[in-house]
Design goal:
The chain is of the alpha+beta class. It is 22% helix and 31% strand. The chain has six helices and 16 strands.
Length: 287
């Protein structure tokens, strides 16, 4: 039937029967469920934590601290004879990045967390679909894809995709310390003034999941990595800043002491403190 022949002057002309209405909803519902309205259209799954970045008062001293833990400084950038960025390797996909103090940023401490994704262009588009405003995908100095986004309380969130030929990819299977105290970074703490607001952002916008350890503010990354962030309040001086996985929690204190570290022992795990006050805890947990 051509459109011109339909009785469009009658309000009931297109009113479907009950059975017809059911059929119409059946076919309309599927794209709504898949492409918006009830759920988001594109995946925002992450591969895991790529790195945690810190501004430190003395890169050489802090690098030495981590090397005493068995980690290796895989590579670094410098300018005018001064190190501007050092990469401490945990495993082939996880690093700690160290930056020096500057006149613009004279305070030591946590800078940002970086998440790894397998397809950064798609992830960027998915975030835009969710009403977020990440910057466009760029190629970073080390040769990987990168974009950043402003998170809760104006904290910077970074995302990377390792590319063939990058410094990170070329370093695979290299600089893996034989005596590493740990082979995996499990969790990074993000300090917030309003943890409830931050929790809502990570759950609703970034599709993170509630953690499995009973802590309301421990959130698993979107996807299946099993790695997490911990939202900590500035007010309660909550610890830790980074959690590393170890196989035998009862042996780690002895190992750390033999390396000359001052070990603090708690009910949940043992921890040490780096030269600028970053808390490093060791746990046998998975999230």
């Amino acid at each position: 039937m051509e459109l011109a022949s339909l009785p469009i002057n009658r309000l009931t002309a297109f009113a479907p029967t009950k059975r017809a209405a059911h059929r119409v909803w059946k076919y309309l519902a599927l794209p709504l469920l898949c492409c918006g309205g009830f759920s988001w259209g594109q995946s925002v799954d992450l591969s895991g934590i790529a790195h945690a970045a810190f501004r430190v008062s003395d890169i050489a001293k802090t690098s030495d601290f981590y090397q005493r833990l068995g980690f290796v400084q895989a590579f670094a950038f410098s300018k005018e004879g001064k190190t501007t960025q050092a990469f401490i390797k945990i495993n082939d996909r996880q690093f700690i990045e160290l930056y020096p103090l500057t006149s613009r940023d004279p305070t030591a401490g946590f800078m940002h967390i970086c998440f790894e994704a397998s397809d950064l262009v798609s992830l960027n588009a998915a975030y835009r679909e969710r009403g977020l405003t990440p910057i466009k995908v760029l190629k970073a100095h080390a040769g990987n894809l990168l974009f950043t986004m402003v998170g809760p309380e104006s904290q910077n969130i970074e995302y990377t995709e390792y590319l063939p030929g990058s410094l990170h990819s070329e370093d695979r299977s290299k600089h893996l310390g034989k005596h590493r105290i740990s082979k995996r970074l499990l969790s990074v703490a993000l300090k917030m003034h309003d943890t409830a607001m931050a929790r809502a952002f990570y759950l609703d916008k970034l599709a993170f999941l509630p953690g499995t350890n009973g802590d309301r503010n421990s959130l698993l990354l979107a996807g299946t990595s099993g790695e997490s962030i911990d939202l900590k309040s500035f007010d309660d001086h909550a610890l830790p800043d980074m959690v590393f996985q170890v196989g035998h929690i009862r042996r780690v204190a002895t190992d750390l002491k033999s390396r000359g570290f001052d070990v603090q022992i708690t009910a949940t795990g043992d921890y040490i403190v780096d030269p600028d006050g970053t808390i490093i805890e060791f746990s046998s947990g998975h999230s």
